[in-house]
Every structure is written in structure tokens, then in C-alpha cells.
Amino acid sequence: MAQMNMLEAIRDALRVELKRDENVLIFGEDVGKVGGVFRVTEGLQEEFGEERVFDTPLAESAIGGLAVGMGIQGFRPVAEIQFVGFIYEAMDQMFIQAARMRYRSGGRYNSPIVFRTPFGGGVKAAELHTDSLEGLAVQTPGIKVVIPSNPYDAKGLMIAAIRDNDPVFFMEHLNLYRAFRAEVPEGEYTIEIGKANVVREGSDVTIIAYGMMVHTAVKAAEELEKTGVKAEVIDLRSLVPLDIDTIVASIKKTNRAIVVQEAQKTSGIAAEVIAQINEKAILHLEAPVLRVAGPDTVYPFAQIEDTWLPTPARIVAAVNKVMTF
Predict the structure, then answer these.
(1) Which run of H or of E encompasses 144?
(2) CA dist., res. 300 & res. 10, Å (int)
(3) What are the pLDDT digits (tens) for 25-53?
(4) Interatomic CA distance for residues 190 and 160, integer angstroms
(5) In the chain, helix, strand, coil percent, each to 5?
(6) What is the pLDDT of residue 46?
(7) What own/partner pairs with CB < 8 Å and gap ≥ 24 does 136-140 have?
């Protein structure tokens, strides 16, 4: 197997699908000759030509509209929104047009589109570049939401997303692009969208997270183990569809849980996960399910973002609360 970071794994997935299916197209701001602001698509235009990998004007609404139009004509667009804070200009195309296409056309048309976007804090980026806006997509029927935490998952989930006949909002954490390398199979493979992964076995408490927060949760679990608490860590991988079965199975074993998200606390995916736990596993709980999340404020300027983001210490404190409830 090759050793890749997450950026390289995503690029490899795009290359695999460009080779496999001539209907796969990649476009967005600077994704062609430059290879994207983070160089995710570097070299793909040179390899596959300007008709398959091309730049667009600086207009997110146009990127979204182009993706919808090409999707209903049989293409499989991979449209990049350069930073997550810029999706507002494309929300009509993403969350209304693409997400409702199959329903409103009675199944005549699909929107087999992947909307890629970087997000997430901890990198001291400029305003509007680091917000966690997955909650906007989660509340939208018809669009899937995928957030990988490692290179292996990123490649398999990206290939699965491109092959999906419905739109997928694929969010890539800025702090994970070059964070570490891992073994990634060469060639094609897929990871089922909607299937969570137990990344660390435990028996005392379940920690549920996604994206960068998976690694924060694992660090917290390592600290907890020093005190005799064995935490099980679940990586959601996708928020829609949500793998509640894996979560419930873990809670039946541990009887306690916390949910970690980088986004602001109110109305985030953590609230939805807790609601479903209450519906399906409340009799297995020995303590309330707690949330560890960003404060309900505007994402802060770079100078203070380290105090805003969830930390292993905050997770440990929440675990200690549910352990002593």
C-alpha cells in the first residue's frame, strides 16, 4: 500500500474516477492549472485535459448551477467550493435544486454531484474559512453529508460519493490535509456512506465524533485510560445518513456517552445524535448524554481560536461528569 496524507488520498480518488468514468468532471475556482488553493487537484488538468478539469469564475452560485445542469445531463460533477464560508452563495443550487431534483422530477432526473469544500479550525485561517457549517446541510433532505477523518476513509468515501446518484456534501477538514500519512490501497475501493467506524474499543463510555474531533477524542481516550476509564471512540464518517445502529450497539455495552463536534453547540449534529439515542437506547443509559462543542458565538479570530475549539481536556471533563453521575 502507498503512504498518503488526506490531501493525496482525495486526489488519488479523483484520479481513479476520472480514469474510470468519462462523465466525471472537476471544476471550481483555481482547481485547474493551480490545482486548488490547497493543491488537492494538482496535476489533474494536465493529465486529463481542460475539458475534464477546469477553472470557473469567482462565483459560487455559478459553480452550483453548472453542477446541477450538468448532473441532469448525465455527467458526474465534482464541484469545489473553495472554502466552506462561501457556500451561502450556492445554497439555492445545493440545498434546493440539487437536493430536490430526484423528488421533484418523479425520478426522471438525478443530481449525482459531489460538492467538495474545506472547513475547520486550528489552522489560524482568515474569517469565513474555518466555520463548521455541516448543520445547514444535515437539515436538508436529499443531500448526503460526508466528513472523513483520515486518508483511507477519505479516498474510499470520495469514490463512493462520486458514484452516488444523489448529491453529496463532502467536507474536508483543513487541519487534516497534511496532518499525517497512513496506508491507502492503490486503485479503486469504496467505503459505504452511512456506516460509522469504531476506531477505539472501550467498555466504560462511548465518545462519538467526526472529522478532526475524532483525533481529539482519541487523545482524550488515551488520557482517560491512564485513570482506568476505557472509552470507546466512534467515527461517524457521514452525518447523513447517520449510522445510529453502531452508536446504539456501543451504548448497550458502555451505558454512557458524549458527543463531540467542532461546530457551535446549538442545533448541531450532536443534538440530533442525542435525540436519536434517547429514542432508541434511553433504557441503556446510566447518565445523560453530554455535548462537547464550540461555544454559541461567531467563530473567533485566529488569536483566540485555540481556546474556542473543543480540546481533549474538555472531553475528559465531560466523561468524568457522566462517569460520576
Answers:
(1) strand 144-146
(2) 29
(3) 999 999 999 999 999 999 999 999 999 99
(4) 5
(5) 40, 20, 40
(6) 97
(7) 136/87, 136/91, 136/95, 137/94, 137/95, 137/169, 137/239, 137/240, 138/239, 138/240, 138/269, 138/272, 140/95, 140/99
Q: What is the mean pLDDT of residues 68-73?
A: 96
List, by residue number, the catalytic residues.
Answer: 129
Give the C-alpha separation, 43 to 86, whole Å: 25
The size of the chain, in residues, is 325
Tally Cβ neighbours within 10 Å of residue 127: 12
Tell me if residue 4 falls in helix, strand or coil: strand
User: How far, in Å, CA of 103 to CA of 108, rounded?
Assistant: 9
**88 CB neighbour count, 10 Å cutoff:** 14
> In this structure, are residues 260 and 267 in contact, taking their beta carbons and an 8 Å threshold?
no
Which ranges constitute the DSSP H helices of the chain? 6-20, 44-48, 60-71, 91, 99-104, 134-138, 151-163, 212-225, 244-254, 269-281, 305-308, 312-323
User: What's the grid cell of residue 301?
Assistant: 479570530
Q: How far is CA 143 from CA 5, 71, 90, in A?
A: 27, 14, 14
What's the pLDDT at 125?
A: 87
The pLDDT of residue 251 is 98
Grid coordinates standing for 36? 486548488
pLDDT greater than 90 at residue 219 = yes
Q: Which residue bears the cell 480540546?
A: 311
How does residue 217 score in pLDDT terms, banded at 50, 70 and 90?
very high
